[in-house]
Amino acid sequence: MRIAHFGHSCILVELNGAKVLFDPGTFAHGFEGITGLDAIAVTHQHPDHIDPNRIEELIEANPGARLLSDPQTAQQRSEGWEPVSAGQVLDIGDLQITGGGGRHAVIHPEIPVIDNTVFQLGTATDPAQLVHPGDSLWVPPVPVGVLAIPAVAPWMRIWDTVDYLRAVNPRTAIPIHFGIVDPSAQGIYFGRLTEMAPAGTEFRVIEPEDQAQF
Protein backbone atom coordinates (compact mmCIF):
# COMPACT_ATOMS: atom_id res chain seq x y z
CA MET A 1 0.00 0.00 0.00
CA ARG A 2 1.17 3.51 -0.85
CA ILE A 3 -0.37 6.58 0.75
CA ALA A 4 0.25 10.18 -0.30
CA HIS A 5 -1.03 13.04 1.84
CA PHE A 6 -2.25 16.27 0.28
CA GLY A 7 -3.14 18.11 3.46
CA HIS A 8 -6.00 17.93 5.94
CA SER A 9 -8.11 14.84 5.14
CA CYS A 10 -7.04 14.40 1.52
CA ILE A 11 -5.05 11.22 0.91
CA LEU A 12 -4.30 9.18 -2.20
CA VAL A 13 -4.33 5.45 -1.53
CA GLU A 14 -2.84 2.93 -3.96
CA LEU A 15 -3.90 -0.54 -2.92
CA ASN A 16 -4.59 -3.83 -4.70
CA GLY A 17 -4.04 -2.23 -8.09
CA ALA A 18 -6.45 0.68 -7.55
CA LYS A 19 -5.93 4.40 -6.90
CA VAL A 20 -8.48 6.13 -4.68
CA LEU A 21 -8.35 9.83 -3.73
CA PHE A 22 -10.17 10.81 -0.54
CA ASP A 23 -11.70 14.13 0.48
CA PRO A 24 -10.15 16.75 -1.86
CA GLY A 25 -11.27 19.72 0.22
CA THR A 26 -10.46 23.40 0.65
CA PHE A 27 -7.51 22.86 3.00
CA ALA A 28 -5.87 20.31 0.69
CA HIS A 29 -3.33 21.19 -1.98
CA GLY A 30 -1.31 19.39 -4.64
CA PHE A 31 -4.02 16.96 -5.74
CA GLU A 32 -5.12 19.11 -8.68
CA GLY A 33 -2.90 17.46 -11.28
CA ILE A 34 -3.60 13.85 -10.35
CA THR A 35 -4.80 11.62 -13.18
CA GLY A 36 -5.43 7.90 -13.55
CA LEU A 37 -7.70 7.66 -10.52
CA ASP A 38 -10.01 4.68 -10.21
CA ALA A 39 -12.21 6.43 -7.66
CA ILE A 40 -12.75 9.74 -5.91
CA ALA A 41 -14.29 9.17 -2.47
CA VAL A 42 -15.88 11.89 -0.36
CA THR A 43 -16.88 11.11 3.21
CA HIS A 44 -19.28 14.04 3.64
CA GLN A 45 -20.42 17.38 2.27
CA HIS A 46 -18.36 19.90 4.29
CA PRO A 47 -16.10 22.04 2.07
CA ASP A 48 -12.92 21.00 3.88
CA HIS A 49 -13.67 17.53 2.47
CA ILE A 50 -14.98 18.44 -0.98
CA ASP A 51 -13.91 21.74 -2.51
CA PRO A 52 -16.77 22.95 -4.75
CA ASN A 53 -14.35 25.13 -6.74
CA ARG A 54 -11.93 22.36 -7.68
CA ILE A 55 -13.89 19.11 -7.69
CA GLU A 56 -15.26 19.42 -11.24
CA GLU A 57 -11.83 19.98 -12.75
CA LEU A 58 -10.54 16.94 -10.88
CA ILE A 59 -13.43 14.86 -12.23
CA GLU A 60 -12.78 16.08 -15.78
CA ALA A 61 -9.12 15.03 -15.47
CA ASN A 62 -10.21 11.55 -14.32
CA PRO A 63 -13.12 10.55 -16.56
CA GLY A 64 -12.80 6.88 -15.64
CA ALA A 65 -12.99 7.42 -11.88
CA ARG A 66 -16.02 6.26 -9.94
CA LEU A 67 -17.45 9.03 -7.78
CA LEU A 68 -18.29 7.70 -4.32
CA SER A 69 -19.75 9.61 -1.40
CA ASP A 70 -22.14 9.59 1.51
CA PRO A 71 -25.81 9.57 0.41
CA GLN A 72 -26.46 13.28 1.08
CA THR A 73 -23.47 14.47 -0.93
CA ALA A 74 -24.43 12.20 -3.83
CA GLN A 75 -27.91 13.70 -3.77
CA GLN A 76 -26.55 17.26 -3.77
CA ARG A 77 -23.99 16.80 -6.55
CA SER A 78 -24.47 16.31 -10.27
CA GLU A 79 -25.25 12.97 -11.86
CA GLY A 80 -22.58 10.33 -11.64
CA TRP A 81 -22.07 10.25 -7.89
CA GLU A 82 -22.75 6.91 -6.20
CA PRO A 83 -24.13 6.94 -2.65
CA VAL A 84 -22.28 4.54 -0.35
CA SER A 85 -24.12 3.58 2.84
CA ALA A 86 -23.02 1.68 5.92
CA GLY A 87 -22.71 -2.01 5.16
CA GLN A 88 -22.59 -1.54 1.41
CA VAL A 89 -19.80 -3.40 -0.41
CA LEU A 90 -18.49 -2.61 -3.87
CA ASP A 91 -15.50 -3.68 -5.91
CA ILE A 92 -13.06 -1.73 -8.06
CA GLY A 93 -11.00 -4.44 -9.72
CA ASP A 94 -9.30 -6.36 -6.93
CA LEU A 95 -10.06 -3.68 -4.34
CA GLN A 96 -13.06 -4.09 -2.06
CA ILE A 97 -14.64 -0.97 -0.57
CA THR A 98 -17.00 -1.28 2.38
CA GLY A 99 -19.10 1.54 3.78
CA GLY A 100 -19.35 2.07 7.51
CA GLY A 101 -20.61 4.50 10.10
CA GLY A 102 -23.22 6.72 8.51
CA ARG A 103 -23.34 9.90 10.57
CA HIS A 104 -21.04 12.85 11.17
CA ALA A 105 -19.83 13.41 14.72
CA VAL A 106 -21.97 15.81 16.74
CA ILE A 107 -20.52 19.33 16.56
CA HIS A 108 -23.17 20.90 18.82
CA PRO A 109 -26.69 19.78 19.78
CA GLU A 110 -28.14 22.75 17.89
CA ILE A 111 -26.37 21.85 14.63
CA PRO A 112 -28.09 19.16 12.50
CA VAL A 113 -26.09 15.96 12.08
CA ILE A 114 -25.30 15.13 8.46
CA ASP A 115 -24.34 11.92 6.67
CA ASN A 116 -20.74 10.70 6.86
CA THR A 117 -19.59 7.48 5.25
CA VAL A 118 -16.55 5.68 6.64
CA PHE A 119 -14.63 4.02 3.81
CA GLN A 120 -12.86 0.71 4.46
CA LEU A 121 -10.49 -0.52 1.75
CA GLY A 122 -9.17 -4.05 1.41
CA THR A 123 -10.27 -7.49 0.28
CA ALA A 124 -13.03 -9.92 1.19
CA THR A 125 -10.76 -11.64 3.70
CA ASP A 126 -9.08 -8.46 4.96
CA PRO A 127 -11.64 -5.68 4.40
CA ALA A 128 -10.05 -2.92 6.48
CA GLN A 129 -6.48 -2.69 5.26
CA LEU A 130 -7.12 1.07 5.31
CA VAL A 131 -9.90 3.02 7.01
CA HIS A 132 -10.80 6.66 6.31
CA PRO A 133 -13.46 7.70 8.85
CA GLY A 134 -14.06 11.24 7.60
CA ASP A 135 -15.50 13.23 10.51
CA SER A 136 -16.53 10.38 12.76
CA LEU A 137 -15.20 8.12 15.47
CA TRP A 138 -16.85 4.95 14.20
CA VAL A 139 -15.03 1.77 15.21
CA PRO A 140 -14.82 -0.92 12.50
CA PRO A 141 -15.86 -4.42 13.60
CA VAL A 142 -12.78 -6.00 11.97
CA PRO A 143 -9.01 -5.64 12.44
CA VAL A 144 -7.63 -2.45 10.89
CA GLY A 145 -4.30 -2.14 9.13
CA VAL A 146 -3.91 1.62 8.60
CA LEU A 147 -6.26 4.09 10.28
CA ALA A 148 -6.37 7.65 8.93
CA ILE A 149 -7.21 9.22 12.26
CA PRO A 150 -8.65 12.72 12.66
CA ALA A 151 -6.07 14.40 14.90
CA VAL A 152 -7.73 17.79 15.45
CA ALA A 153 -11.38 18.78 15.04
CA PRO A 154 -13.91 21.21 16.52
CA TRP A 155 -16.12 18.25 17.37
CA MET A 156 -13.70 16.34 19.60
CA ARG A 157 -11.18 16.57 22.42
CA ILE A 158 -7.76 14.92 22.46
CA TRP A 159 -9.33 12.58 25.03
CA ASP A 160 -11.80 11.42 22.34
CA THR A 161 -9.01 10.95 19.81
CA VAL A 162 -6.92 8.82 22.16
CA ASP A 163 -9.91 6.67 23.12
CA TYR A 164 -10.78 6.20 19.45
CA LEU A 165 -7.23 5.18 18.60
CA ARG A 166 -7.26 2.65 21.42
CA ALA A 167 -10.69 1.32 20.46
CA VAL A 168 -9.68 0.72 16.84
CA ASN A 169 -6.20 -0.51 17.81
CA PRO A 170 -4.82 -0.40 14.26
CA ARG A 171 -1.44 -1.66 13.17
CA THR A 172 -0.58 1.87 12.02
CA ALA A 173 -2.26 5.25 12.51
CA ILE A 174 -1.61 8.26 10.29
CA PRO A 175 -3.01 11.66 11.33
CA ILE A 176 -5.37 13.60 9.07
CA HIS A 177 -7.69 16.57 9.58
CA PHE A 178 -5.01 18.79 11.08
CA GLY A 179 -5.20 21.56 8.48
CA ILE A 180 -7.18 23.65 10.97
CA VAL A 181 -4.26 24.20 13.37
CA ASP A 182 -1.02 26.10 12.93
CA PRO A 183 1.89 23.81 11.99
CA SER A 184 3.72 24.87 15.15
CA ALA A 185 0.88 23.42 17.24
CA GLN A 186 0.57 20.06 15.47
CA GLY A 187 3.19 18.46 17.67
CA ILE A 188 0.93 18.88 20.70
CA TYR A 189 -1.57 16.50 19.16
CA PHE A 190 0.90 14.17 17.47
CA GLY A 191 2.93 13.84 20.66
CA ARG A 192 -0.06 12.80 22.74
CA LEU A 193 -1.22 10.27 20.15
CA THR A 194 2.27 8.82 19.87
CA GLU A 195 2.76 8.38 23.61
CA MET A 196 -0.79 7.20 24.33
CA ALA A 197 -1.26 4.84 21.39
CA PRO A 198 -1.95 1.22 22.30
CA ALA A 199 0.98 -1.16 22.43
CA GLY A 200 1.75 -2.45 18.96
CA THR A 201 0.32 0.57 17.12
CA GLU A 202 2.73 2.68 15.11
CA PHE A 203 1.86 6.38 14.88
CA ARG A 204 3.31 7.71 11.64
CA VAL A 205 3.04 11.22 10.22
CA ILE A 206 2.93 11.76 6.46
CA GLU A 207 3.60 15.41 5.79
CA PRO A 208 1.45 17.18 3.17
CA GLU A 209 2.60 16.38 -0.40
CA ASP A 210 4.71 13.50 0.88
CA GLN A 211 4.06 9.76 0.68
CA ALA A 212 4.86 6.50 2.46
CA GLN A 213 4.75 2.76 1.84
CA PHE A 214 2.94 0.35 4.17
UniProtKB/TrEMBL annotation:
SUPFAM superfamilies: Metallo-hydrolase/oxidoreductase (SSF56281). SMART domains: Lactamase_B (SM00849). InterPro entries: Metallo-B-lactamas (IPR001279), RibonucZ/Hydroxyglut_hydro (IPR036866), UPF0173_UPF0282_UlaG_hydrolase (IPR050114). This is MBL fold metallo-hydrolase. Residues 7-177 form the Metallo-beta-lactamase domain. Pfam families: Lactamase_B_3. It comes from the Bacteria.
